[in-house]
Specification:
Layout: H1 2-13, H2 17-21, H3 23-30, H4 43-51, E1 61-62, H5 73-88, H6 90-98, H7 102-113, E2 120-123, H8 126-136, E3 144-148, H9 153-166, E4 169-173, H10 182-190, E5 197-203, H11 215-224, E6 228-232, H12 244-247, E7 251-255, E8 267-271, H13 304-308, H14 310-320, H15 322-340, E9 346-348, E10 361-365, H16 370-381, E11 383-384, E12 386-390, E13 393-398, H17 406-419
Parallel strand pairs: 1-11, 3-4, 3-5, 5-6, 6-7
Antiparallel strand pairs: 2-8, 7-8, 9-10, 10-13, 12-13
Bound molecules: pyridoxal-5'-phosphate (PLP).
Length: 422
């Protein structure tokens, strides 16, 4: 069943003859992973099997997966393989062999996010994808851009830079988070949108506390008022199902090195077909007004091994399945929340349900400095995590992953017990 599933998945995008002819290149890193189908396993056995596909630190318990995910071993091996191959004769292997398989990689990736290969560009990260939109849009003095104070810092910086240079006006959305009130979340955006608004920027899952925003409904409101919509999906791809087409948005950018577990330094950009012509690429190509996505991929010589190894990351991801992964992440988060929420001084600053909450958990301990807590966790329990402070949110940010052991979470719970003892 497992092998059949993988073959079926491969066949889905290996349907063209050009793709079939490259199958031998794909084979070692897409079709030979350990069977990850669920049948016959208990939950516990299954997720231990998944963990074996990774190379986690023997020293640290990594609870900062929201920063960047580790790659499964098969992905690491693929990166090395294509990197070594490139070094045998770089311009031959990189440009005549590996790069020519890019369309196949894009087709498989597009399949995951509900569009076609020709609808996306491979870029280096979410910042590059989103800044292509921020700096490439034709905007003039007085045009307004709506964005949240909980947007990712570099996205805010990019819009601030654009505002400073071009005189566009930024309208900031304030959100009282965490929130599970869909109407409230939509209204906060709605209130800032008017007939000067050219684009509304929505972070689907915020890095600050894992809040999930009702992106589809916010997009509907924005579109009804004639604004375009850009979505930061850095934490969505690979963490929860995403169907770009059904969102009816104009632009979307994501990292692939976060929850998809693709190589570090990979990302995707989606631009609606009718918006491609007017969006200038960040790095110039022969025709900046072209209506295809390839114009966004001219970034000089780059590491094609990384792009090529997105494919085994996808095969690995699909062998588990987005839905199962999302449920497991929810389970892990709930496992922590249930054990720490009633400890003295603790406030959970993330939504705990699956509709508005994600794999990212923000924990506040009264009277403690977040920086000190992060240090203590590392020094005394070998737990690696980070802090998160923005607007009213303040705490240590905990983000487990599918390879995280329950015993590791038990260590975190023990640490919290000790840290909250008065
Ligand atoms: C919400 C959000 N958007 C964008 C980014 C930028 O991602 P990248 O590092 O891939 O550019 C991050 C990174 O953490 C993020 O959390």
């Amino acid at each position: 069943m497992g092998v059949q599933y993988r073959r079926k998945f491969l066949q889905q995008f290996l349907s063209g003859s050009a793709a079939l002819s490259v199958y031998p290149w794909l084979c070692p890193f897409a079709d030979e992973i350990t069977d990850l189908t669920f049948e016959g396993d208990t939950e516990d056995r299954y997720w231990k099997k998944v963990r074996k596909q990774y190379t986690p630190s023997k020293k640290f318990i990594n609870l900062n997966n929201a920063g960047v995910n580790p790659q499964a071993k098969i992905v690491q091996d693929a990166v090395s393989y294509y990197e070594n191959l490139s070094n045998e004769a770089p311009s031959y292997y990189m440009w005549r062999i590996i790069d020519r398989q890019k369309d196949m990689v894009k087709e498989a990736l597009a399949n995951l996010v509900g569009v076609k290969g020709e609808d996306i560009a491979l870029v280096r990260n979410a910042s590059e994808a989103l800044e292509t939109v921020i700096f490439g849009l034709p905007l003039k003095r007085g045009d307004e851009v709506v964005l949240s104070k909980h947007a990712y810092p570099h996205i805010k910086f990019a819009w601030q830079q654009r505002a400073e240079r071009d005189g566009i006006k930024l309208k900031w959305v304030s959100l009282d988070l965490p929130s599970s009130d869909q109407r409230y979340l939509i209204n906060q955006f709605d209130e800032q949108i008017n007939n000067q608004t050219k684009i509304v920027c929505v972070t689907h899952i915020t890095n600050w506390n894992g809040q999930v925003l009702p992106v589809k409904q916010i997009a509907e409101v924005a579109k009804a008022k004639g604004a375009e919509v850009m979505v930061d999906a850095a934490h969505t791809v690979g963490q929860r199902p995403l169907d770009i087409k059904s969102l009816k948005i104009d632009y979307l950018g994501s990292s692939l090195h976060k929850w998809l577990g693709a190589p570090f330094g990979t990302g995707l950009l989606y631009v609606h077909p009718t918006k491609r012509g007017k969006l200038y690429p960040l790095m110039a190509g022969p025709n900046p007004k072209a209506k295809h996505m390839k114009k966004f991929e001219h970034s000089g010589t780059k590491n094609v091994a990384l792009e090529r190894a997105i494919l085994p990351a996808l095969v690995f991801h699909n062998s588990i399945g987005t839905e199962r992964k999302m449920q497991r992440l929810q389970f892990l988060k709930t496992y922590i929340v249930d054990r720490i929420k009633d400890m003295p001084g603790i406030t959970i600053q993330s939504p705990t349900g699956i509709e508005f909450g994600s794999a990212i958990l923000l924990v506040h301990i009264k009277g403690e400095k977040n920086f000190d807590l992060v240090q203590k966790l590392e020094r005394n329990w070998n737990i690696h995590c980070t802090l998160s402070e923005n607007e009213m949110l303040s705490g240590i940010r905990i983000s487990p992953n599918i390879y995280t052991l329950l015993s590791e979470l038990d260590t975190f719970v023990e640490a919290m017990k000790s840290l909250t003892k008065i």
